[in-house]
Here is the input.
Amino acid sequence: MDPNDEATEARSPDTSPARLRQLAKTKILRPLIAANPNVDEELLWELAVDHPEAVIKNPKMDLFDLGVDPWWERCESAALLKLLVELGVNAPQRGRDQLVHSIADELRESSPLAFRMEWHQRLTRHIFIAVAQDTSEADSSDESIGSDDQDAQDDAFWSNADDKEQEEYSFTLEFCSIVEDCFFDLEIGNSWKPHDSATLLKILIALGLSESGKMDLTALPWDYEHNSTLGGQGYWQIDKVDPDLPGWEFDLDVDGFGEGVLTVIDPTGFGHHRDISSEADQDYLNPELDRDLAELLFGGQFSIDQLHELLPKALVLNPDSAQAAHR
Here is the structure.
């Protein structure tokens, strides 16, 4: 058959749905068929993935709006994604909500997801200690506890001020915790739904492990179990003392959350104790999922890079929101 005749058939609203499906096997005719009001609904949504602009102009879309179920509730999630991108700011908000819920359902059906990474934390603390050089025969078993309040320090420890000379030391310690062979099983709750588009995008970008390659598990509304060969959240060690203090000893008793006690033994043999309590800076290194997230969504029709490009457009997030989600 003459190609021109086939193009005429693809355009004609009198062409039967069965014939349009046959013609759709020819790639060059597919955008013409996508705009034909006589195309069957299943084929229409299939064509929407590659030719959303033609589907939006199809008069059949107006008929869907007059029915009980609007078009965004009738099409597959991949078609919905591309149609929302094409419509941009003119897309119905209910259509965007439908996309969010569809993705959440797909994630729920695919969970749990196994996630493996090394988890490092860092905690920097500035320490002030006053050391007494005792000129008398003082009991060397006495323990001094430094304080930022010089008056309280004097009252508590230096009652015999005439017999002692004080020397102040100020230094910074950097603690580092190490966890090896971490495994996290992530599972989305049955009742959970993303509260907004930005939250969903942040989760997808984090799980996709693109850009910085880091994610904060605690920021996700998912249940997760953590296992490690070291148990708990690993161990802490003093990574750096600045400036270097020869003759000093340090003992760290800190839990996996960076809370505990630091004991410093100064050159005179006195012990100084400091409570360590703070949120540590967390770094997730070498993260990887057991499967590519893109394979779990939209039938695997898009790569994770394509999803990161399409989702902000479909959900009409401004550049600042999208960038914040990447961080």
User: Anything to note?
Assistant: The two ends are 56 Å apart (CA to CA). Residues 135-148, 157-162, 319-327 have pLDDT under 50 and may be disordered.
